[in-house]
Queue: 3 jobs
Job 1
Amino acid sequence: MVKDDLTAWFISTREKITLLLLLGVLLAAWVLYGVLRLIMSRVRRSAKLRYGDKELAIQQRLRALDTFRGMAIVFMIFVNDGAGGYWWLEHATWNGLAAGDLVFPAFLWIMGVCVPLSVKSAFAKGVPRWKIVFHIIRRSIMMFLLGISLNTIYGSNMLGELRIFGVLQRLAVAYLVSAGFYALTAPKYYTPPRGACGQALKDVLSCAWCWVLAGVLIAAHSAITFIIHDPDCPAGYLGPGGKHDEWVAPECSGGAAGYIDRLLLGESHLFQHSDARNVYGGPVTDPEGLLGCLTSAVQALLGVQAGATVLLQRSHKARVSRWLAWALVFALAGALLAGFSREHGVVPINKNLWSMSFVLVTSAVSLTILSICYTFTDAWRVWDGGPFRAPGLNAIALYIGHSVCAHLFPFHWRVPFMRTHAIRLIEAVWGTALWVIIAHIMAKKKVFITL
């Protein structure tokens, strides 16, 4: 027994040392990269931006947004590549929050942040409101159809078994709701109310209709979640079904969300191999199903509010202080809903159900990270966002590329002994690094792909 304990301790310690060594190497490479760039910038003094003329428009953008988006896509690729097999870097099986669970909501939230900036820019160029809305609808449809196509990489391409929803589809729906609604309701010329209070809250007041929509979506989601249920299942059930909690509700996987998906979409059109089903069994549930689209749209609308702060609060201090204040409010609200626990709250933190506590907590994390990025890249200007900014400028291209090349060399490879954290971590970092290099080459050649 003692020998087994010592062996387990030795293996665990060796894995931690391997992870720390790799992180040290990556940090050293990052520092070296920054030093070389600093030297080259002093040698080649130029008024042009790093990536040439096409970056003239990007110059007006916040570096923090592209940097944060780049961090999200890089970590998403790393997680999808296996994250070295470390459980805390992947996704929680059901309730709870792991590092990998922060990536998708960060993407969704930052998409919302960009909405007020792009809509106001279109207004400034004289683009009619109907054209802006048409562009949003067209982009959402393209994103949704592209997501269905990508689903066939891992799933069936039989028409009767096509998975309908997925990551890009969830982004498309949230974008359509948040950006479409903002484009329809945002005034072309906003005049803040007079007085100290009006000036202090002008960014919030400018998004008043978005807050109304968010409230309606939250009310609808809550009502459906706690009222609608399978006739053979308890109302308000939020568990994974199967053998969870000693088979208390074996056929009720996902509660109302799972029931609606199975009823409206059909089991054959849902994700068949979710982690929750692999662990607990039970009926099929889709982590990107219909009901979660409501709270995903709410998360995008929370991003819209952060973007409105950029438009109407001009000082660095005002922007960062408001973002951090919202982060504190959202974190406390999410923790209260979850009961400051993983399992025993009214609304547990759950990515599979995209619960409101999950929305609030992950939005708080996103606000905090954006505040840090903004302070270093835009306020103090001591960091240009490298090496994440280039991936952030081509996030959609990297996401599609890494999905298509999921089983292709040189992005992925195998050796006879792949069961150790060290080898799997090296393989994941290798594949992720290749996509970062590709992003920098695309940016250097002024290739920016958008929908």
Job 2
Amino acid sequence: MAYLIPNLRRCFCLNSSNNINVIQTAAYHANVIDHYENPRNVGSMDKKDKNVGTGLVGAPACGDVMKLQIKVDENGKIIDAKFKTFGCGSAIASSSLATEWVKGKTVDEALKLKNTDIAKELSLPPVKLHCSMLAEDAIKAALSDYRIKQQNPQKE
């Protein structure tokens, strides 16, 4: 019986003799590998903070789940972003890149970020485009949550 050991650069096979053989080289772009091995802005913020917007999205077809949070200052500028993602390397890379790109933008500017831009930057293959779509959905969900909080401020 062979066991597959996934890796972003190669796929290994552990055979019945406990020998490891490289059986396939994956076609991940260097940008995906970089964001997967060195993810930026991993973590969480206080979702009860009125200046924090939280987006939680998932892709039932593949099981990826992405939480992306933004913190906005009094001028409407995103000053911080964090993510936690359960998923493949492309999903993690898309989340990491999304947090880098939203920081420093206004809420309106961040709304203009598109999954196609994320996919292009990471050179995602067609089979992984859903990861960049998930990142765009997470950004929009976080921005929507932030705007709802601004319209309905909670009493402290």
Job 3
Amino acid sequence: MCCSGFLKMMMFIFNGCIFLAGAAILGVGVWLKVDSGSLLGILDNVDNVPSGISQLMNVTYLLMAVGGVLLVIGFLGCCGAIKESKCMLLTFFSIVLIIFLIEVAGAIVLFVFQGLADELLSDLEHEVISSIKKDYGSTESLTSIWNVTMDEFKCCGYRNYTDFDGSPFYNEGKGRFYPTTCCNATLITSDECAAEIAEVSMIDGCYFKLLQLIEDNAVIVAAVALGIAAIEIAAMVVSMVLYKNIK
């Protein structure tokens, strides 16, 4: 009885962690989906996106799916332990095993993608800059996404301010001006960012910011996934012990 009670308590703890992790992952997926100003939104307005990058568009759906499944298996595990249901415990074990294998594969992909990020983002350069020169200042959706992105990440264009040369925004009116985020705020006295000020300001392109973001977070995300996987292994072991002890 003492051993059974301890196993049930451990089952509650492990499944509580899995449930909370599922809620967090689901929340991140929903946030990325509804965040129209995210960098992924830029890819919607770019033609001929490389296949390696286009797959990142589905990351929000993957996060929501994994988060939802983790919520379900956390609930199943707790119910199986309370009711001492062999069916629930076996179902729990099977689903957790599948999710565990998916998470390990995903963590490996993240480690590999971290090294390929520079190459994949470089492949996007021509298409992204072409879309800026063609539509920035005339297409509201693309202009809004770029403005939010540049303001949030404190960057200018994809590589630098010259990406806006020849764009509708650059050619409108009598002047030849760039978005204000391309100029150091201390160097401009109005809302106009001239070429000479943009050159002196040397604001980094969003390419470099995105690359840094990927490199900084890929290892963290992979480590978290492996941490959740370790909890899942422990939960699977406990569930099988409980399954064996139920008469």
